[in-house]
């Protein structure tokens, strides 16, 4: 059989990692596929003589030209960013090239158009590397759990955020302090917004949810909250109550629609997910036949990302060898036909809560708060009065799950009590046990 | 497209679970495959009127006749046992039927012949349910990690054994006591040998290793040691040193060959694998590009096993729809061609050790022991003299990795010291960090 020919667009850390991996594991990969894999083109603005690329590999900055070449079967896009990646991939699809991409932002925001174009041109877009790096979570959900109706999934899908929260917990450090270290270590970008404000996680959650429920990609409907307001104080109180704060992406099927949300979340200390530390990722999936399963590993980095990209290469090589036109056997978003289930607004979602109220030391304030919660039908699971700080006493309350709109109203009333100082902190809480 | 037609052989817990799952999730599965799935035959010695099977499903005890029928595309074998499963599946293969089986014993011991027959007749044998129940670990290793050279894997792959060890640790209970409870709870068989002596785990490890390294199935070469000799005392000492004892199946690639071993193992408390409790399973895989990844979930039970079986059904339905004769795209044991790497004997393997020596309270014995170890080139990582028991003082020693033959010799010398009482306990230790 003829070799399968690849064009790699982007020669940064990940692009370099792919070249290295294809070379290093060439023998093992050949044993798996029984077929030669050849890199014919590399698209890069700056040539990289340091990589000592094979002389036969053509380097060029003209990406639209590369994707039109006859000696390309598969285009690997690891440039990142939405433009020009979107235009280049559309062009590649029109030329009948299969696509492998790690570009979560592009797929979450423009995937519906790209998948449609791929279908029209009978090519595949595969994207294992776009979610949770080297963990084969897309394959697990699309194929491994295909017998199940998936109830929900909850994932630590941003390594930077998890590194920051882990350091805050282990060493009692402040957010800003750890963020600075993360930037120095290269875990966080100079502009850390995408990571710490949850946008990156929301991109990944969008992809996970479509594969879990068979719904179109709907990034704009993900409720997204970052970790920049989490304080060392709340991390400590959570720990005392038996919980850890993790930044989770959660997709849940409810009777009224789908919840898509990214936010800091208290989860029980003894959960495996609570023990996923540092830059590592993990996804917990609750499905109706198998029950809970968890998938853990490196969520970023050249090696792990290349691992996912090249696994997609292997899949495509197998598909090109054994299916008509390499069309493959698995639907792009796990389902033959997508369903338009409603996505809930934040106000319609249901979660448990950690509340921290700063109260004056005044008789009756505890009674006032619990009365407000009780009248709203909010059950209190735990309540803890903390040591007095300068001018107030922090009262920490854990509640059972309640609809957010009800909590909004109750909190407005609590906030209006004269004995309350400053803003009441609310962090969501999930027991992960259903 | 015509429906894909299934025959289910065996109507026990798992068989019943498959029927229930195919019915309960029919709509979701149809959305994934775009194709009808029909059960046409059920093979069972005793008819099950309580299951209210569709009248169109034929029930029969004549399995060889069922697998010859024209209205069967796929045979699902969930009878268990080696005979007559082996003969029935060979017959099914000769009639061109694809096979799905959960039968780890059959595959580990006779898989090489069965896979050969399947190749000759252009059918697939798939077996996700044979290892770690509902965790899609075969798919992960065959496909998800296909870009990697796998260095080693270590798994908790027998739920009964893990339940027993978890109870022993949590409650300080004795092995026999917990085993009895496990039998009452239905976690352990009346004859628990397969589970507690590691045979079941060795069957599963055989399948994992072939998929990880591309070697033929070699069950007879797995070094297998059970948990029946683990005492509450050693569990406690391990805990004090920061370790937990887990019954692991380990497959490791070394410069000299492959290690295949099942045995109780001390692993660091903070490892996720050490925190997998009760009947749950988990497999940690170390691969050269992605690094460590871990897969966790239910390893047995009707729902999880049916989840894996029906995921295989979905894969086969997709393959039958899109590849020639349904031959599929992935090699049966992950590699297009298997390699005959040498499998190491126990004496050639290398592990760390937990040793418990029972010494008379006599000056010099500690010096004698450490001298023997030091002369053998065995590094001591920790040493702890415990509180005196009736007639001796337990001395616990943790060592760095060393070849087993060297440890054998050193232990023989220690055992020959006049101040040593009874047998020295040796339990292997893995740091899981490379």
Automatic annotation (TrEMBL), chains A, B:
Fetch the InterPro entries from UniProt.
ACT-like_dom_sf, ACT_dom, Asp/hSer_DH_NAD-bd, HDH, HDH_cat, HDH_CS, NAD(P)-bd_dom_sf
Keyword vocabulary terms for this entry = Amino-acid biosynthesis, Methionine biosynthesis, NADP, Oxidoreductase, Threonine biosynthesis
Give the GO molecular function terms.
homoserine dehydrogenase activity; NADP binding
Listed Pfam families: ACT, Homoserine_dh, NAD_binding_3
Q: Which parts of the sequence bind NADP(+)?
A: 9-16
Q: Where does NADPH bind?
A: 104
Q: Does the keyword Oxidoreductase apply?
A: yes
Indicate which residues the UniProt annotation says bind L-homoserine.
189
Question: Can the keyword NADP be found in this entry's annotation?
Answer: yes
Q: Where is the ACT domain?
A: 354-434
Q: Organism's domain of life?
A: Bacteria
GO BP terms: methionine biosynthetic process; threonine biosynthetic process
Q: What is the E.C. number?
A: 1.1.1.3
For this protein, the record's NCBIfam families field holds: PRK06349.1
Family of the protein in this entry: Belongs to the homoserine dehydrogenase family.
Q: What is this protein called?
A: Homoserine dehydrogenase
Species of the source: Acinetobacter qingfengensis
């Amino acid at each position: 059989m003829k070799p399968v020919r690849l064009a790699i667009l982007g020669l940064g850390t990940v692009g370099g990692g792919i070249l290295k991996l294809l070379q290093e594991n060439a023998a093992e990969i050949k044993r798996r596929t029984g077929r030669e894999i050849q890199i014919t083109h590399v698209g890069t603005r700056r040539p990289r003589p340091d990589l000592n690329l094979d002389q036969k590999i053509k380097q060029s900055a003209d990406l639209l030209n590369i994707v039109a070449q006859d000696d390309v079967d598969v285009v690997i896009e690891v440039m990142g960013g939405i433009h020009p990646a979107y235009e280049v991939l559309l062009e590649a699809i029109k030329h009948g090239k299969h696509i492998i991409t790690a570009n979560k932002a592009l797929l979450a925001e423009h995937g519906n158009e790209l998948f449609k174009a791929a279908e029209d041109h009978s090519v595949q877009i595969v994207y294992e590397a776009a979610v949770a790096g080297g963990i084969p979570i897309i394959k697990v959900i699309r194929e491994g759990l295909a017998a199940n109706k998936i109830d929900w999934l909850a994932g630590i899908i941003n390594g930077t955020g998890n590194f920051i929260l882990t350091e805050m917990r282990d060493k009692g450090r402040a957010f800003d302090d750890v963020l600075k270290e993360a930037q120095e270590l290269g875990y966080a970008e100079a502009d850390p917004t995408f990571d710490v404000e949850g946008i990156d996680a929301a991109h990944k959650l969008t992809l996970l949810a479509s594969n879990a429920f068979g719904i179109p990609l709907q990034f704009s409907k993900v409720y997204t909250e970052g970790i920049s307001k989490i304080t060392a104080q709340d991390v400590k109180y959570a720990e005392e109550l038996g919980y850890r704060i993790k930044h989770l992406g959660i997709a849940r099927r409810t009777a009224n629609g789908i919840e898509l949300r990214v936010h800091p979340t208290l989860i029980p200390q003894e959960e495996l997910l609570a023990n996923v530390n540092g830059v590592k990722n993990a996804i917990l999936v609750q499905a109706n036949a198998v029950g809970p399963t968890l998938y853990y590993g490196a969520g970023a980095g050249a090696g792990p990302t290349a691992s996912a990209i090249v696994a997609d290469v292997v899949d495509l090589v197998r598909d090109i060898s054994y299916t008509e036109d390499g069309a493959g056997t698995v639907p792009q978003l796990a389902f033959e036909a997508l369903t338009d289930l409603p996505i809930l607004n934040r106000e319609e979602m249901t979660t448990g809560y950690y509340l921290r109220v700063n109260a004056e030391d005044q008789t009756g304030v505890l009674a006032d708060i619990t009365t407000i919660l009780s009248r709203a039908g909010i059950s209190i699971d735990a309540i803890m009065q903390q040591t007095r700080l300068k001018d107030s006493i922090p009262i920490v309350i854990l509640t059972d799950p309640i609809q957010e709109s009800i909590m909004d109203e109750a909190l407005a009333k609590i906030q209006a009590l004269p004995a309350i100082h400053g803003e009441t902190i609310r962090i969501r809480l999930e027991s992960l046990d259903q």
